[in-house]
Specification:
elongated; alpha+beta; five-stranded mixed beta sheet; 12 strands; 469 residues; Beta-Lactamase; Helix Hairpins; 12 helices; 17% strand
Length: 469
């Protein structure tokens, strides 16, 4: 390695300092008359000349060592220390520095790997997570939190991304030494959601200052389910309350004023029978819906002829339709109507759809049932010629107890659960339900079900099946 070029003034000063003890000795000898002044001056000059190259070499080694340390601190992957001309100390120091640097690099790699693993773990969490320091400045944020609050959150005050006074107050209380807390709020960043945030203070602040963690959890679906459950109980209670009140009222009347009135008794018993039938239908539909929901996760795998099931349903309603001069028309445009399903449940679907079509069709109209193949699916559409349904009602038709016209639906004997049952059965069959309607023209309710594979494929897929040549 070439020696660095040192400034002459620094070389001169360093040489003088190195020769200073010799100059002092020569001066003392000259003052004590042990050595003549010319000889002392000549000796001092000779000492300076001899020391100059040695000092230059020593200073060069120190400079090489300094630059070597600078290279190490700059991150260069130097594996071997440089060679030195004179300084043994610099050589030993460079070896120690090399070992120290190698150890530091290994620790740094391990630290980076641990940091990367921690980030991947945090980013893999399903819920957003934010860490803040003692002054409420964001120190860490995972990927889901970035998607929720933005990518430029680190280093900013928490209030700049979380504008929820209740949550911020809970964070301040936690920073002041309070216990862990849970805050729920409604977020309307893009789509309105209900968020629950868990605020936890660390026992000891982390090395980067992190003192409090905020874990967010979307509870929108949970709150919606709770609301639906409450609505369901309220609606079911309301639906049962009316017929029960009617029955109790007529029973009281028959026991009292109308006890001996044959005409009133006959009329009241007919009304009581109608209300009892209404309660029976409601209870049966509730039990049916509950049973279907319990089995909704298991898909039926039995081949069923959907066309044959639909024909039997139309036969069942033929007399009722004829009473109102309503025609029932079946159109099948598919060479196969076999689907994987449950025959009884599919019959229940078609009964609900045909029953609704007849109920809401005009007298003398025609109810069409059109069956066609769409790729690997079978589409069964029930089309009526009724008054139609406004578009605003369509998304809610499959909700429990939802009715477009309460009075008319009850008058026609509806429980408000038919399409909810249809939806859950179709979901269990891994199919699709589509409702289209035009006011004044009628409504089309279409069910799309996956076609059953050929019988040979089913036999091959059956456990323990074997093919023989």
């Amino acid at each position: 390695m070439l020696r660095p070029n040192l400034p002459l003034d620094r070389q001169f000063l360093a040489t003088l300092l190195a020769c200073l003890p010799g100059f002092v000795v020569l001066g003392v000898l000259a003052v004590s008359n042990y050595l003549a002044w010319p000889a002392a001056l000549l000796g001092a000059a000779a000492l300076f000349v001899v020391s100059w190259p040695l000092v230059r070499l020593y200073l060069g080694d120190i400079t090489v060592f300094a630059r070597f340390i600078a290279r190490l601190s700059g991150g260069d992957g130097v594996a071997e220390p440089p060679s030195f001309k004179l300084s043994v100390a610099a050589e030993e120091l460079s070896r120690a520095a090399t070992a120290l640097h190698a150890n530091w690099r290994l620790q740094n790699i391990a630290l980076l790997a641990a940091s990367s693993a921690s980030k991947r773990i945090l980013d893999g969490l399903p819920d957003p997570l934010i860490a803040v320091d003692r002054v409420r400045r964001i120190t860490h944020i995972n990927a889901n939190a970035e998607a929720m609050f933005g990518t430029q959150a680190i280093g900013r005050d928490l209030a700049s991304v979380l504008r929820q006074p209740q949550a911020l107050a809970a964070v301040d209380a936690s920073l002041a030494g309070g216990d862990a807390s849970i805050v729920e709020f409604i977020s309307s960043a893009r789509v309105e959601t209900v968020q629950m945030v868990h605020i936890v203070r660390l026992k000891e602040p982390a090395g980067d200052g992190t003192a409090v963690l905020l874990a967010f959890h979307d509870v929108t679906a949970l709150r919606r389910t709770e609301r639906m459950r409450a609505d369901f109980v309220a609606n079911a209670s309301h639906e049962l309350k009316t017929p029960i009140s009617t029955l109790l009222g007529f029973i009281e009347t028959l026991r009292g004023a109308a006890k001996d009135d044959e005409e009133a008794r006959t009329r009241f018993l007919a009304i009581m029978d109608e209300q009892a039938q209404r309660m029976a239908r409601l209870v049966n539909d509730l039990l049916s819906l509950s049973d279907i929901e319990l089995r909704e996760h298991t898909r039926p795998n039995t081949p069923v002829d959907a066309g044959a099931v639909l024909r039997s349903v139309l036969d069942l309603f033929e007399l009722r339709a004829r009473q109102r001069s309503i025609g029932l028309k079946l159109e099948i445009d598919s060479d196969s109507t076999m689907v994987l399903g449950d025959r009884d449940e599919l019959g229940q679907v078609f009964q609900n759809l045909v029953d609704n079509a007849i109920k809401y069709s005009r007298n003398g109209a025609t109810v069409r049932c059109h069956v066609e193949r769409l790729n690997e699916s079978l589409r069964i559409a029930v089309i009526d010629q009724g008054e139609g349904i406004a578009e605003s009602h369509l998304p809610r038709l499959t909700e429990r107890f939802y009715r477009v016209d309460d009075a008319r639906s009850r008058k026609l004997g509806g429980t408000g659960l038919g399409l909810a049952i249809v939806k859950h059965i179709v979901n269990r069959h891994r199919g699709q339900l589509q409702i289209d309607s035009v006011v004044g023209q009628g409504t089309t309710v279409a069910v799309t079900l996956p076609l059953a594979p050929p019988l040979s494929a089913l036999q091959d897929a059956a456990p323990g099946s074997r093919r023989t040549a």
